[in-house]
Amino acid sequence: MSQPSAQTPASVRLRECPICARQETLCDGAFLYGVRVCQPCSRAFTGSRERAFLVDCLLFLLLVLALSIILSNVLPGSPYSSKVVIVAYLGSCLLFACKDGLAGMSLGKLLIGLQVVDAETGRPAGPVKSFLRNLCVSIPLVSWFYMWAVASQLAEGPRCGDGLAGTRVIWRRHRYALPFAVSATVCWACGYELRGNVSGRCPECGRTISPEMMRRINQEMESQQDWIDVSQAP
């Protein structure tokens, strides 16, 4: 990694993006879950979330269309047909709200490579958390206004529903990168603080710390120092 010149302020020095290792200046980066990343990674992650949501919406529309066709053929002229269609539509909305409840992935997220996880533990979200984070998206009419508000939040990571459900969306192939890791300095097995560890093994439970994990620990400590540098810059 290139060393900053004597004339370069600490707040704009070059550092590697924690996702792709691209060298960027801090001032040119973007924040993703509070961590500075390069602009290409920020745009790529936002685009992935948008594509996954589009796939889910298309599948939802196909499901509603299929149910409408089936019910119109099964219940032709029935006085209960309209009520059944309404119930089927509401059931489809409920299913859409729980779409991320299977291992934290809807079909769209599975195809694009994303996953919804618990913001504190990093474990895949279940049906309850999926329902909470997608509730507003699933309500007819409300969803249109909600999506306009969400569009401006995706670039930074969490959206309104994630705050309600206590979840976050991660890039599966970069799950160990600093923006998506729950905490690089805490042992996932026992919760022991690993800051400053150089042995490569958790002293509390004996869990081996992989080289990737050690790199994440260093990245998180550097990121915290970068925050201090930026806040102290004139």
Features:
single chain; 234 residues; mainly alpha; 2 domains; two-stranded antiparallel ribbon; 7 helices; 6 strands; disordered N terminus
Summarize the structure.
The protein is 47% helix and 9% strand. The protein has 234 residues and is mainly alpha-helical.
Could you explain the architecture of this structure?
This protein is 47% helix and 9% strand. The chain is mainly α and 234 residues long. It folds into two domains: 51-172, no CATH class; 183-234, no CATH class. The strands form three sheets. A two-stranded antiparallel sheet has the order 1-2. α1 packs antiparallel against α2 (81-97) and α2 crosses α4. The two termini are 25 Å apart.
Give the percentage of residues in beta strands: 5-15%
Poorly predicted regions: 1-12
Element pattern in H and E? EEEEHHHEHHHEH
Overall outline:
elongated
* Strand order in the largest sheet: 1-2
Helix content: 40-55%
Helix/strand class: mainly alpha
Number of strands: 6
Beginning-to-end CA distance, first to last residue? 25 Å
Mean pLDDT: 76
Largest sheet: 2 strands, antiparallel
Count of domains:
2
Radius of gyration: 22 Å
Number of helices, where a helix is a run of at least 4 consecutive DSSP H or I residues: 7
Oligomer state of the chains in this structure: single chain
How are the elements arranged and paired?
Layout: E1 14-16, E2 23-25, E3 30-32, E4 35-37, H1 39-74, H2 81-97, H3 107-112, E5 114-118, H4 127-138, H5 142-151, H6 160-165, E6 167-171, H7 211-232
Antiparallel strand pairs: 1-2, 3-4, 5-6
Helix pairs in contact: 1-2, 2-4
